[in-house]
Amino acid sequence: MRTxxxxxxxxxxxxxxxxxxxxxxxxxxIAEVPxxxxxxxxxxxxxxxxxxxxxxxxxxxxxxxxxLLLRVADLLEEHADEMARLETLDQGQPLQVSAGFSVxxxxxxxxxxxxxxxxxxxxTAPLSIPDVDYRSVREPxxxxxxxxxxxxxxxxxxxxxxxxxxxxNTVVIKPAEQTPLSALRLAELIEEAGVPxxxxxxxxxxxxxxxxxxxxxxVKKISFTGSTGTGREIGAECGRTLKKVSLELGGxxxxxxxxxxxxxxxxxxxxxxxxxNSGQVCAAYTRFYVDxxxxxxxxxxxxxxxGSLRLGDGLHPETHLGPLVSAEQVAQTxxxxxxxxxxxxxxxxxxxxxxxxxxxxxFFEPTVFAGVRQDMRIAREEIFGPVLAVxxxxxxxxxxxxxxxxxxxxxxxxxxxxxxxANRLAREIKAGTVWINMMQGLDAAAAWGGxxxxxxxxxxxxxAIEAYTEIKSIWTSHN
Length: 479
Hints:
It contains 14 helices and 21 strands. It has 479 residues and is of the alpha/beta class.
């Protein structure tokens, strides 16, 4: 596959400087990828700006644009096995995740938004002014900068790209420097589908590349998924230049296990919900509030199940948990495990890097702490690794307060046989998404995003159409 950047329909090495992308299962270099300069970013943005008004894209009829998105979906589906293996190679997630979840979700997003292309409507409204008709239309924004994370590189890119193209925008993509390969391969498929040159551009690089994209005066919108700290910087920069911005940031999802919950079902759902992609999920269930009378039972069963999971290369079919994405994530996870121990939490399983044949990769054992207090850092700060914290509670009336005692508000889970109790808590917990008696679910039709320090705006569903368009009001006099 190509590892060059795609700018204005041409594959280019840019300035010629490169950086490595690694296989996290082995620590070995997969490929050298171009480091985009500010000049490269400028060229890409100007190409996207020219394509936005070109007859080949700006003049394209909605039905034709929908067909292009459907063609991209078909090509992605045809190459699903290849894309899944590439995602696993570059990011580390097991094939059962990349092939069973990430790639199919991306395919469905292209198809879902292809269906919206011919259905984006404005409104008419009666005005209290005589002899005047009023209507509104939704128009694309222009050039959109899409900055994507390393935990689900392909899937989260498509959450942004599909609605951006469906609404008629052009884009410059900046994938995470740790995991650029699936974005570049997708760009090849987009070319093959017949999307005009300049509509989709990909620049690779680190933070400086992202800053150049955010600051470019011709970029009308930034959509970013990543850390809260970086999101704040991007939001501040966009605020200074009055750029539109969408931010999907960190999380510390609470999972509430009521006294009447089916403990075995809750253990299984929370194990999957907490350790999917080795805990590298912004909506991972990471702090579990369990009735004090059932705390020990839940914690011991959770630890037993976590300790039985098989670590290994994600390309191996028997692997349950793959590596973390980088040495930096291993170091961060190690640091938090040390904090948990020093603050007095009880380590039930894990807590170390494996040795032997996995020692060269970025692996970390699934880790469960019990008897965690609300003030401990492992209960309050995002770890983004396979570390689960079990906290006992005494009074059910305090649950919403405990769950909301966090800077984050991306997602939450509730486990209870009493649907009235579950729905009451769902209303009280401040989170963008609440799942009841299930692990995380995502669908192209369901709005996704967070409250508080978990971000601004929403992706998916109609919300993404709104995010990539602006409303124009048109008044017409009868005279």
